[in-house]
Amino acid sequence: xxxxxxxxxxxxxxxxxxxxxxxxxxxxxxxxxxxxxxxxxxxxxxxxxxxxxxxxxxxxxxxxxxxxxxxxxxxxxxxxxxxxxxxxxxxxxxxxxxxxxxxxxxxxxxxxxxxxxxxxxxxxxxxxxxxxxxxxxxxxxxxxxxxxxxxxxxxxxxxxxxxxxxxxxxxxxxxxxxxxxxxxxxxxxxxxxxxxxxxxxxxxxxxxxxxxxxxxxxxxxxxxxxxxxxxxxxxxxxxxxxxxxxxxxxxxxxxxxxxxxxxxxxxxxxxxxxxxxxxxxxxxxxxxxxxxxxxxxxxxxxxxxxxxxxxxxxxxxxxxxxxxxxxxxxxxxxxxxxxxxxxxxxxxxxxxxxxxxxxxxxxxxxxxxxxxxxxxxxxxxxxxxxxxxxxxxxxxxxxxxxxxxxxxxxxxxxxxxxxxxxxxxxxxxxxxxxxxxxxxxxxxxxxxxxxxxxxxxxxxxxxxxxxxxxxxxxxxxxxxxxxxxxxxxxxxxxxxxxxxxxxxxxxxxxxxxxxxxxxxxxxxxxxxxxxxxxxxxxxxxxxxxxxxxxxxxxxxxxxxxxxxxxxxxxxxxxxxxxxxxxxxxxxxxxxxxxxxxxxxxxxxxxxxxxxxxxx
Length: 615
Ligand code: AGP
Hints:
The chain contains 20 helices and 27 strands.
């Protein structure tokens, strides 16, 4: 959560930082701020609200020809969103400025100590405590800024990504990381810093990702020095070349990133399959599975650990793995797993799923499972993310950057990866014969085309959405492979339209939720053909008898449900194990359209942030 952008060099940092903050707004958007300085002056601008408001305010200020700047877009943890709690924060002397992403857990005791030494505080944030601690150490120990930062960080409990500068000696930026990502872009005698690399993609492709417990000194003369915060050992920078295209982080003519990302799913899934699904050879190639074949073949149990949408994908994984490889599977909320002293046996495999690869709860759960001796496999989208680096092995979804806060293509590509893994393990374990597996492989290769077709013919969803845009509540039902899809559909609706929505296994209705059904209750039912179809039709009858409004997702050509439901949305006929990918698409579009009709900001829903790097 929170986005950080900084620059030091010969260019004007303002447009670089404002442009960068716009790209990082998915990380938080309740307030924003920027500090710029030259050798003799500095200028601080902070405002409650979004980066646009900050940019407008900045235009009213005189240009001081700065060469250094630090900026921040905030997702509030300590202290409500207001101007004084917005970053950058400054020390009591007014010399040191800092932007911070993360939480300083022992800020209260540090604050008390600083108050006892005469410090005062203008904000309610933990971050202001840290910048003053740095100042206190710098003065007391009479050390350089980078040393003071290092000594202060060794007293800190919690997580941080920080950039610090001294406005009275603006020759360097000090950057440090523990638990909150930071990328350093290398320019011509200049440096860019971002919570990810997107802020500086149009300036440089050369990037150094800081590891946990590392700090860097970025000097105006183009020097970079990295060292370990604890051991003080120097670290040689590992420079990576970014492959992302600028188009992938722009809206490309779509009204919202979410809509663009929904429409990108055929391509994203093709990218997920590329080089892995080898239909002609009748096999699936996943290097990380081949490399650890024995581990997977000997696994007694698979435990999925994830949050939110990635947790829903994990549930689909449970159905897929049980069906294809007959292995016991458990699906855990990372936030619960990490605090439960979980039982991890030898020969358990823990699979962590995360789009961002930075979700704090998933990362913490991963570390616990690793300590307990499990083999950890990761499914991430963001290349080089913390989770992908902490796992023993893993696979990328290759969905491309997902900017909309509501996950769309991340979910469908996670399911695609899970299908690939399930089919590969079925091949290795010989739980299905090669003919059957080949049929599944061939069918999987057709999925991107089917999604493309589905999206093209989805205009009826806009009409359906009109009927339910004023609803207060909504129920989603599904069974088997599509129960997780019901959960995901409900999550999409509530997070972007603020309509209360719940997903249930369809048969659970009669154990309570059916009491909610009346003529005002829309019920979205995934009623595709095959297993449990008749049972779901009976559930639909039960809803109809109680005057609930039924929106049914059905298989192409279905006539039975069409007679019962108020609206039907057809999806192409596919094997049941592939329906979660297809059934999700109309639910994403329905939520999107309802949110638009309600005037909601779909890309930046209230109270949310894309990457949840705090507990
Ligand atoms: C869903 O639309 C949300 N973006 C959220 O539930 C998300 O899936 C969750 O925070 C986990 O994120 P991750 O996949 O990046 O770990």
